[in-house]
């Protein structure tokens, strides 16, 4: 794969196509696709997490139906793959092919309805380009694991003092060091599996590149915004400091956890512990991407929390991933929630699995929860 962008988080915002609805749903062009969401019962979220993971894996790894990057894949509201097309010679040609395929899927009974795509609205069945700027997971893993001497680090930040110039450590060792020290200081109260997911975030946010800098002015291995850097009292000369970035991200995660835990426990406190912890972790990842306030609204707002209430009442039918995705999916188009919100969590999950299923970390305590 080619590394054409510093952050998959940015790439996830480059999405899809839509437009004029032809079928039983009546809505304005920019609203038609949300009618598909609104009309879908909550039970359709069964299995959605694994389905989306499969499709995103094809994109991330240029595999499966995305082994040729000059394609689009189409999928339904449950994340089930329906078809693929070869891209046309122009964007308009590709759009025409997508719309023809959408209509054919409806005519063949493989889709309940279809919405023709355009340049600035979302069509249905949903379409995702295989050729998206994305991080090279292989290279990102190598940086994280310090495969090359140039990728190893040492330094000091606050009361942290990691490795030395004579014996530099890896990013992985730095994550473990910062997390374990802050936990021993009783400054963190996070799910046991969260550090592994933080490692996955490093791969997705920056590919492990210390000087990653987004168009939105997010910086460093964890793509911290100017406001986050300020909240962590990181001065400009230390914006790229990897220990500072890890420490700040954990601090922000802990703040989000502290703010969300009471309302989360009220809604999902009856779930089995392992499932409850996994769901809370996925929601913390969502909060890192889109803000804790938005996740809190999914748990408490009279309208936005309706999916969460359903999943809480019928939790045995769904995985933690299905619930986390369903809470967002059934609110798409509200509160600035879009498909990129789903993709980010899926991509972090895939990156975390790629690390934890590799030879170096497969049997480690760090990955015991994955």
UniProtKB/TrEMBL annotation:
List keywords of the entry alphabetically. Answer: Signal
For this UniProt entry, which residues form the secretion signal?
Answer: 1-27
Pfam families reported in the protein's UniProt record: SLT
Annotated Transglycosylase SLT domain ranges read: 183-296
Q: Which Gene3D superfamilies match?
A: 1.10.530.10
What InterPro entries does the entry give?
Lysozyme-like_dom_sf, Transglycosylase_SLT_dom_1
Q: What name does UniProt use for this protein?
A: Transglycosylase SLT domain-containing protein
The record lists the organism as Marinobacter nitratireducens
The beginning of the lineage is:
Bacteria, Pseudomonadati, Pseudomonadota, Gammaproteobacteria, Pseudomonadales
């Amino acid at each position: 794969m080619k590394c054409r962008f510093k952050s998959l988080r940015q790439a996830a915002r480059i999405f899809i196509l839509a437009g004029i609805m032809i079928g039983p749903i009546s809505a304005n062009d920019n609203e038609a696709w949300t009618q598909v969401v609104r009309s879908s019962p909550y039970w359709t979220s069964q299995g959605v997490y694994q389905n989306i993971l499969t499709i995103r894996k094809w994109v991330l790894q240029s595999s499966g139906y995305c082994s040729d990057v000059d394609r689009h894949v189409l999928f339904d509201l449950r994340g089930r793959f329906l078809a693929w097309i070869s891209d046309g010679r122009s964007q308009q040609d590709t759009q025409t092919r997508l719309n023809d395929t959408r209509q054919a899927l409806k005519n063949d009974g493989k889709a309940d309805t279809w919405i023709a795509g355009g340049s600035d609205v979302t069509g249905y069945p949903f379409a995702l380009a295989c050729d998206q700027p994305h991080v090279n997971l292989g290279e990102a893993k190598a940086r994280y694991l310090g495969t090359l001497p140039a990728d190893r680090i040492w330094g000091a930040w606050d009361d942290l003092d990691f490795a030395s110039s004579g014996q530099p450590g890896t990013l992985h060792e730095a994550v473990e060091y910062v997390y374990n020290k802050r936990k021993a200081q009783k400054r963190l109260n996070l799910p046991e599996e969260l550090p592994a997911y933080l490692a996955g975030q490093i791969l997705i946010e920056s590919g492990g590149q210390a000087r990653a800098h987004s168009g939105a002015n997010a910086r460093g291995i964890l793509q911290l915004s100017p406001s986050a850097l300020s909240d962590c009292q990181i001065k400009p000369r230390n914006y790229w400091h990897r220990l500072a970035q890890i420490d700040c991200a954990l601090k922000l995660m802990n703040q989000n956890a502290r703010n969300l835990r009471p309302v989360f426990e009220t809604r999902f406190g009856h779930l089995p512990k392992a499932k409850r912890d996994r769901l809370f972790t996925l929601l913390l990842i969502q909060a890192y991407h889109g803000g804790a306030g938005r996740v809190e609204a999914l748990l408490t707002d009279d309208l936005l929390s309706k999916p969460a209430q359903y999943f809480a009442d019928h939790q045995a039918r769904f995985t933690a991933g299905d619930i986390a995705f369903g809470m967002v999916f059934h609110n798409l188009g509200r509160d600035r929630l879009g498909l990129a919100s789903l993709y980010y969590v899926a991509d972090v999950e895939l990156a975390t699995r790629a690390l934890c299923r590799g030879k170096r970390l497969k049997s480690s305590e760090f990955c015991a929860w994955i």
